[in-house]
Design brief:
Layout lengths: L7 H5 L4 H11 L11 H13 L24 E3 L5 E5 L6 E2 L13 E3 L4 E2 L6
Length: 124
């Protein structure tokens, strides 16, 4: 399923955020069933966190907490059905190139990233 989201080369490169996110979901995440439609959403958010150096964010409460729904992660706002509708990470020491996988958050309406350290552009 993840092969349709991220390049297979990245999924097989242990140093890539994509491979690390995949490993986290397989080996640590206890809240997402492999057949769950929300698997893609949690994977994309994990790629975002790992790509943008989430461990160094000013606020990263609950991100990558294997026992917590992604809707409870700092700056993540979801619909009543649990789909991510907004990411609010402005002024949060977010650093790096924004990952293309975010386009798979199908319910995302608002993305707030101002006053961070993003450079380059992700391919569309």
């Amino acid at each position: 399923r993840l092969r349709s989201i991220s390049d297979l080369t990245l999924l097989n490169d242990e140093s890539s955020p994509q491979a690390q996110a995949q490993d986290w979901i397989i080996n640590e995440d206890v809240t997402t069933d492999p057949d769950d439609d929300m698997l893609v959403q949690k994977y994309v958010l994990a790629v975002l966190y790992l790509s943008l150096h989430g461990s160094g964010w000013t606020s990263n409460s609950s991100w990558m907490d294997a026992n917590t729904s992604e809707c409870e992660w700092f700056g993540v706002h979801c619909t009543e059905h649990g789909h991510v509708k907004s990411l609010e990470l402005s002024n949060n020491n977010v650093i790096g190139v924004f990952p293309i996988e975010v386009k798979f958050l199908e319910s995302l309406e608002n993305l707030m990233l101002k006053d961070n350290f993003l450079d380059g552009a992700a391919d569309s």
